[in-house]
Amino acid sequence: MAESSFVYLTKERLVELEKELKGYKTTGRKNIAAKIAEARAHGDLSENAEYDAAKEEQGLFELKISKLENVLSRTRVIDAKDFPKGKIHILSKVSIKNLKTNKIINYTLVSAEEADFQAGKISVTSPVGKGLMGSKIGEKIKVHAPAGILEFKILSIE
Q1: Domain count, the chain
Q2: Residue 130: CATH number of its domain
Q3: In the chain, which ranges are E strands?
Q4: Quick one: CA torsion of 35, 38, 42, 43, rounded to 10 degrees?
Q5: pTM of the predicted model as reported, rounded to 2 decimal places
Q6: Per residue in 55-98, pLDDT tens?
Q7: Under a CB-based contact definition with an 8 Å cutoff, are residues 115 and 109 in contact?
Q8: Three-class secondary structure of residue 143 per DSSP
């Protein structure tokens, strides 16, 4: 994803990320500073592996903060009410039937940043997500996935 591209998030996910960032900047930074101070107290810094590890952890932690700030700076809040009914779009809750296995699957289409397969949230940029976008109830679609060509029938859209 290009650095300048928008990140589409739900209001709920935006609030979660903002809380996470606030925690990193307050409690997280204090904890890292305490580790560095404790390691520094052990003496000679040139041969202090604990100090080096704490400083490296600090660098990785600051990188995490920077990345999160970057995502939040490019965020655009989306709401399912902003999209037309009857077609699959981001935030659609869909029920599809795998025509090969006859298994019914329920997904919510979300941005890549919110995707969580275990929770039934798939990215609109995933092969299945791309294949579903713009489809209507009753349509049969073919999806080119790493596992091969999958065929689905759209059962419902919310």
Answers
A1: 2
A2: 3.10.50.30
A3: 7-9, 75-77, 93-98, 104-110, 121-123, 140-145, 148-157
A4: 90
A5: 0.68
A6: 899 999 999 999 999 989 999 888 877 787 889 998 899 999 99
A7: no
A8: strand
